[in-house]
Amino acid sequence: MLNEWNHYNASSGKFVCAVPGVYYFTYDITLANKHLAIGLLHNGQYKIRTFDENTGNHDVASGSTVLQLQQSDQVWLQIFYAEQNGLFFDPFWTDSTFTGFLLYADQEYLNEADRKANA
């Protein structure tokens, strides 16, 4: 797992924004033998939801979005129908991914950081 600057908290499963700006998030979740209803939340509000009706084989549920984040904003994945939890887990097979990265930082934040660095 790549977690530069430790903005992703593996214990909570949440990304916590340290640098305000525009971020890209994507997920690919492997499911097995059941349906999966999962969504991406930003500060507790669903931004996208994915429902995948499993046909008896392994399948992948995917989603992606672009979000404007402020410092301390949180982004995470959450199953929204517990009975639809076909999430596949195998500690030796890391097939599901949750990815987020900064596209560009907020200009005011960069200007302030530059002023502090040159003070």
TrEMBL record:
SMART domains: C1Q. Residues 1-109 form the C1q domain. It comes from the Eukaryota. GO terms for cellular component: collagen trimer. InterPro entries: C1q_dom, Collagen/C1q_domain, Tumour_necrosis_fac-like_dom. This is C1q domain-containing protein. Its main location: secreted. Keywords: Collagen, Extracellular matrix, Secreted, Signal. Gene3D superfamilies: 2.60.120.40. It comes from Champsocephalus esox (pike icefish). It is found in: Secreted, Extracellular space, Extracellular matrix.
